[in-house]
Design goal:
By secondary structure, this protein is of the alpha/beta class. The protein is built from nine helices and ten strands. Strands 6-7-8-3-9-10 form a six-stranded mixed sheet, sandwiched between helices. Strands 2-1-4-5 form a four-stranded antiparallel sheet, with helices on one face. Helix 4 packs across helix 5 and helix 5 packs parallel to helix 6.
Length: 296
């Protein structure tokens, strides 16, 4: 069975300068990545900041062009210069960014934001456009009363739902979620995650979920690929067995997650006297609103 999305040996480099006078040097942020995503599944791209996972998502969305490699969507190479049907392919790929406020035009109303992809790809009358926007807002559990409101007039959770409505407006096959819930509080995160799971079941969506949060990625993903320094260093088929992650980069992020029960967290007894004294001093001056200047 052919995979819906497949990347083969994708690489991307940037030219950078440490100083104005220094010569340019090439920094490889995505290095020879090969992955597959099956239809109706969610592939989690997991890694720390700077590992190259967001660049990989931008390549799939067509925002960045890789140096080499193949990107196959339903068997069609989206990077081939002879392929002139990319617009038809791109409409099947939705995208959600980390910061919902910076990913929308602040001068657009909610209706304008959701209607933008419809206006770009389809011909709709004004009445039909309004009806379709109302339906999309209903799908993401929002009232049509906010259609005339601007981004700064609604909450972050509501705006992220608006971004979801925009992402599914053209009924895409794939949605790229680039840290889509990390800027929201925990309660809203849970609501958005439940909504994404519901939409996946209802519309048969496939997700590429990019995150550094192992807890959220484990709730949505069917398979996890760990990125570090531009490479896939580990893959995990069973998301319920996160403790099996063995690569040092994976373990570092796994160990940074606090256990649910306080008894499993790091105790003060494991610190030596000097470390414990410094912790107590810092806490004292933080809570007493003092400014400390240490002269060594």
């Amino acid at each position: 069975m052919m995979s819906m999305l497949e990347f083969k040996n994708i690489s991307k480099s940037y030219c950078m300068k440490e100083t104005i006078m220094a010569p340019s040097k090439s920094v490889k942020v995505v290095n020879n990545i090969s992955l597959k995503l099956e239809r109706g599944k969610c592939l989690g791209i997991f890694g720390r900041s700077g590992s190259g996972k967001s660049t990989l998502g931008r390549i799939i969305a067509g925002i960045e062009q890789p140096d080499c490699g193949e990107l196959l969507f339903n068997g069609i190479n989206m990077l081939a210069k002879t392929n002139r049907n990319n617009k038809g392919i791109r409409r099947n790929i939705g995208l959600m960014f980390q910061d919902c406020y910076s990913s929308v035009n602040p001068r657009f109303t909610t209706k304008d934001i959701v209607a933008e992809p419809l206006l770009n790809y389809e011909k709709c009358s004004s009445a039909e456009l309004t009806k379709r926007v109302e339906k999309l807002l209903e799908v993401v559990n929002l009232s049509s009363d906010i259609m005339g409101k601007y981004p700064h007039e609604i909450s972050g959770g509501q705006l992220q739902r608006v971004c979801i409505a925009r992402a599914i407006a053209l009924k895409p096959q794939l949605i790229i979620l680039d840290e889509a819930v990390s800027s929201l509080d925990v309660l809203v995160q849970m609501q958005i995650m439940d909504l994404l799971i519901q939409l996946q079941k209802e519309f048969g969506l496939s997700y590429l979920f990019i995150s550094h949060d192992l807890q959220t990625i484990g709730k949505l993903a069917h398979e996890i690929a760990v990125m570090d320094q531009g490479q896939i260093v580990e893959t995990l088929q069973d998301v319920h067995a996160l403790h099996r992650l063995s690569h040092p980069a994976s373990r570092l992020l796994f160990d940074s997650v606090l256990p649910m029960h306080p008894g499993g967290r790091k105790k003060f007894g494991c610190f030596n006297r000097l470390e414990l004294s410094l912790i107590m001093i810092v806490n004292y001056f933080i809570f007493s609103n003092h400014l400390v200047v240490l002269i060594t």
